[in-house]
Amino acid sequence: MATSPTRIIMVSVALIFAFSCSCSSAADFNQEFDITFGDGRAKILNNGQILTLSLDKASGSGFRSKKQFLFGKIDMQIKLVPGNSAGTVTTYYLSSTGSMHDEIDFEFLGNVSGEPYIVHTNIYTQGKGDKEQQFYLWFDPTKDFHTYSILWNPLTIIFYVDGSPIREFKNLEQNGIAFPKKQGMWLYSSLWNADDWATRGGLVKTDWSLAPFTASYTNYKAQACIWSSTSASSSCPSSNNNSWFTQSLDTTGQAKIKWVQKNYMIYNYCTDSKRFPQGFPPECSLS
Q: Residue 7 belongs to what H/E stretch?
């Protein structure tokens, strides 16, 4: 009997997992992150349990994980900039470096008071992105902390909001579609001014009289394979909870994605015929 492509992938995943991967988790921002810019505008508070980023007219701020990951389930609770946040962008993403970098993006585009935030998602593989999907949130993300998660394993990439999947990008390498799986990525976050494009295409500018703008972070958790750029390999300590490494969406998860995309999606590159007049990217008809 012929072996199916799915069976081959699952066997390969099991072998990789058995020899190189387990889990890591942490919650202390002092131990897990470095402040990358901001000249004091990024602050770690409450014995490492809270991190805040601030933006004023002079500068934004940001941080980066001390470790690189090759596959993982990353959770972060974020409270976004409240009030009139027009022109601001809060980013939360995984990325390698260089012109051929891989990247998995959450970007939160601010708006005027009372208008919904836009959640912008994108995926880069070997320096090529152009896979944007955008959503409104079904709650006010500035009133309390909400959990934003990235699941990245050899089978798929899934974006979650409060445990509900909003987007999936499957590994379709067997169809000639590139998938990020060879470069370790750091976790980054930043708060910066993008009023030339972020709110209504740049029509609404940042109101600096309301500065400083502040976003807050807590309850960071990483179940992940730790990447070593020196040895070009990944490893992590053992754990009993390794299910994320072979996780994909079941029927219930697929239904949740369809519900979110039906009710809250506002842009999908796979339906933008003006942008792709010669035909949509191949993953659009396969995923």
A: helix 5-20
Identity of residue 87: G
Active-site choice (107, 115, 132, 168): 107
Residue 112 near residue 125, CB atoms below 8 Å: no
Strand segments (E) across the chain: 33-37, 43-45, 50-55, 61-79, 88-95, 103-109, 118-124, 133-136, 146-152, 156-161, 164-170, 185-193, 213-228, 233-235, 265-268
**Angle CA(258)–CA(150)–CA(90) in degrees, nearest 5?**
100
Dig out the tokens for 276 from the structure.
């792709």
Cis peptide before 212 (omega within 30 of 0): yes
32, 103, 115, 168: the active-site residue:
103
Predicted confidence at residue 66, as pLDDT, reads 96
> Does the annotation count 103 as an active-site position?
yes
The DSSP letter of residue 238 is -
N residues, the chain: 287
> From CA 101, how far away is CA 124, in angstroms rounded?
7
Res. 283: pLDDT tops 80: yes
Classify 227 as helix, strand or coil: strand
Query: Distance between CA atoms of 130 and 100, rounded to whole angstroms?
Result: 14
Contact indicator for 69, 23 with CB cutoff of 8 Å: no
Cα–Cα dist 242/36, whole Å: 31
- Concerning whether 132 is annotated as a catalytic residue, the answer is no
Task: List, for residues 21-55, the tens digit of each pLDDT value.
Answer: 434 444 799 999 999 999 999 999 999 999 999 99
Residue 236's pLDDT is what?
61
Two tokens, residue 228: 């070593």
Listed residue (64, 75, 170) closest to 125, CA to CA: 170
